[in-house]
Amino acid sequence: MSVEKKDFGKLSDGRQVHLYTIVNANGMSVSLTEFGASIVSIMVQDRQGNWRDVVLGCDNAAAYEKQTASLGSVPGRHANRIEKGCFTLNGQQYQLAINDGPNHLHGGPTGFQRRLWNGEIAGKNSVVFTRLSPDGEEGYPGNLVAAVHYILEDNNQLRICYHAISDKDTVINLTNHAYFNLNGHQSGSALGQYLQIFADQFTENDAGCLPTGRKVSLDSDEGKPMDFRQMHMIGEFINEENQHLKNGSGYDHNYVLRKDAEGLCARAYSEQSGILMECHTTQPGLQLYTANFLEGSHIDGKEGAIYHNRDGFCLETQHFPNAMEHPDFPGVVLKAGQVYQEETGYIFKTI
What we know:
This protein is mainly β. The protein has helices spanning 61-66, 243-248, and strands at residues 2-10, 16-23, 29-33, 38-45, 51-53, 81-82, 86-89, 92-95, 104-105, 118-123, 126-133, 144-152, 157-166, 170-171, 194-197, 199-205, 211-217, 232-233, 252-257, 264-269, 275-281, 285-289, 314-318, 333-334, 339-350.
């Protein structure tokens, strides 16, 4: 086990950015950067023993600042969408920035994914990123201290532990926005890879990908193209005539998780590489996003890669989007002085 810190370039305002690389006993490595508390690289072995980088990313800090796809980052203070950027808390209405049609997305135009966090090596196999989000930042109440702890285990699990505390009641919903491709980051479309999600329902979106509050059963006719209870290719039904797929321009939907005792919520697999990824979480929801808009996101990919739409997929563990408008959704309110804690793990195996 080891952690290396090195220069990753500078932002447009001259601030220095670093890259942290954790290597476990098997040679698997995870590289992370302070910009957006982002995952830059995950190197895992395929069934032939060759190393593949299975997340999309950029080569330096300037390229991360330029891109708008939230590559590998931690969006916040509230990831995903809030209707009209408005919510009422303790009788007071708060207006957030509008940056996704009529709605608020991923904490606003300068959300956590576009902030420079403080990075620190936290042990022989871990790195922690912290930042203070001041009262009023992007319209949110409370001085909020957030921490994201990345831990690489010898069982090839990358654990992501989220913590936060605020001095006022506020709302919070943290996730990671890594784009996975189990054949390698520059191998083309991920639609031929396989996915299983342990959920019997998903939350319906309107045409702006905002949850309406309705939960749709995967046993229903309208839910069938959305059903990943049995593992199948991600792209098998993506072009079907279905209003839910139309509203998301593909998959961009929150699944209502039913987890086992280990918190297993999803599996992904590539026949080509033999790499299997398991996702475990404490969170109640999982946003499946099939990278439907990568081409318009100003990305200079790693090693000169050009990323096209659907060259990756995201499994964003989360609380449900737009929860402040739907009381039956799991709550996103963090009371003053209480500690927010969630955890997600990605385990890599070969078959």
